[in-house]
Amino acid sequence: MSAFEKFILEPTDDKPGINFDPENDIFEIYKRSFPEDAIFFYDPVIEWMNNFISTTEKSTIIISIKLDYYNTSTSKQLSRLLKDVETRKGNKEVQVFWYYDIDDEEMLESGKKFAALLYLDFRFFEKEEN
Length: 130
Known about the structure:
Transcription Regulator spoIIAA, 37% helix
């Protein structure tokens, strides 16, 4: 049983869905992300993940990024989130599953840029057709 409650936010037109469900090993950010105030939106997301990653006894954690689009402000917050995870992971294996549409070379390149800057295990996957 997890000591952490789920952290769920439904996606809106400009904010991504957040599905952090430790009991089922699901940690995903999905849809589109260009909130007016990215810091305000992502602060509680990052705080939850920081608390979780620092205290969980899980040895492997997979964070799935399934964004269709994100803006520069979101990029900065994703960087902050992943850098914090990198700093706090200790002996845990953290994998980042980066999903992109087959025809979205820019999203794939964005993921590769994050991978080059972080000591996390990035894996890249084409999104399944909806």
